[in-house]
Design brief:
Length: 324
């Protein structure tokens, strides 16, 4: 990081995480930020990715581009989830190495860990048990991304790092009625129920699973923090076989509690019903974030405050769509 204004490529800059990383970089004074839309650069096309890196002379990469979604999307499109993510990761990592990129940050997902992992989940629990079946193809792709970075570091001496975020939410989220993650799905469902005057909202699952959530701008801040660390500091808390670092809030909440909190933030006053015939997914998923805290970073956005910000962003999108 000797260059005070490195040329930084943010892959996936229109997504939830990528857009937050762009905001975080700009807030910290970085001005030489390179982005490409999906139409401008197809990341599953190796020739296109190679040409991009040859032409742009990138110094650092944030690899936030990914096909993502909730339980329904993972169950419905397993082939797309494993193929697209594998191809994007392989192309970007390999061509970044070929082009001599100085530093790369790969963003994974906490679903990489075993379904019944000991809690809280430490980085070394990776591949220590069976994955959650509902998102196994996505998880396998993300594990491959970590191993790509580790393998290039071991063989070629690159500085490719990985961070594993917990469940994220906030501005830029996907509010698709079937394919979104839990918080945006709840926000949309409660908002529509409120607008329609519905008496009740039905939530998938029993409500018992415990989940950890992190406001996306906190995730972006953590990502920039990790990328800014000297290699010696990063290496001091990792090892070649478990080089990734967990990123989370360190707090968890049940889906039952979360649903009532989202309903309160949105202003829904009806009844909340849980459909236990639908899948719950992993029973509990709390990340151990001691490594990240030892590097000087902790989350600072409480869940209730983050939900208010997320709902405000959702309303802004709804207004923009209505006036377009």
């Amino acid at each position: 990081m000797n260059n005070p204004d490195p040329r930084i490529y943010v892959a996936g800059h229109r997504g939830l995480v990528g857009s937050a990383i762009v905001r975080a970089l700009r807030a910290r004074g970085y001005t030489n930020i390179v982005t490409r839309t999906h139409d401008e650069l197809e990341l599953t096309d190796q020739d296109a990715v190679r040409a991009f890196f040859r032409a742009e002379r990138i110094d650092h990469v944030y690899l936030a581009a990914a096909r993502v979604g909730g339980i329904h999307a993972n169950n419905s499109y397993p082939a797309e989830f494993i193929y697209d993510n594998l191809m994007v990761q392989a192309n970007v990592v390999h061509e970044a190495w070929r082009a001599g990129v100085g530093r790369l940050l790969f963003l994974g997902s906490s679903c990489i860990y075993p379904r019944l992992a000991q809690q809280p989940i430490r980085e070394e629990y990776l591949m220590d048990g069976a994955l959650e079946p509902t998102n196994e193809p996505y998880a396998v792709a993300k594990i491959a991304g970590i191993k790509l970075c580790e393998s290039y570091n071991r063989q070629y001496g690159t500085d490719f790092r990985s961070v594993m975020p917990t469940n994220l939410y906030g501005p830029g989220d996907n509010y698709h009625p079937q394919n979104s993650h839990v918080i945006p799905a709840l926000v949309r469902r409660f908002h529509e129920a409120k607008a329609e005057g519905a008496r009740e909202v039905v939530i998938w699952g029993s409500g018992k699973p415990m989940r950890e959530f992190l406001y996306v701008d906190d995730m972006a801040a953590a990502s920039v923090h990790v990328m800014s660390l000297p290699l010696e500091s990063y290496a001091a808390v990792t090892d070649p076989m478990h080089s990734h670092i967990n990123v989370g809030s360190g707090n968890e909440v049940s889906i039952h509690e979360l649903a009532h909190l989202v309903g309160e933030v949105v202003g829904f006053e009806g009844r909340i019903v849980f459909d236990a015939t639908k899948p719950d997914g992993t029973p509990r998923k709390l990340l151990d974030v001691s490594k990240l805290r030892s590097l000087g970073w902790s989350a600072n956005t409480p869940l209730r405050e983050g939900l208010h910000r997320a709902y405000a962003a959702f309303l802004a999108v709804q207004l923009a769509d209505a006036t377009a």
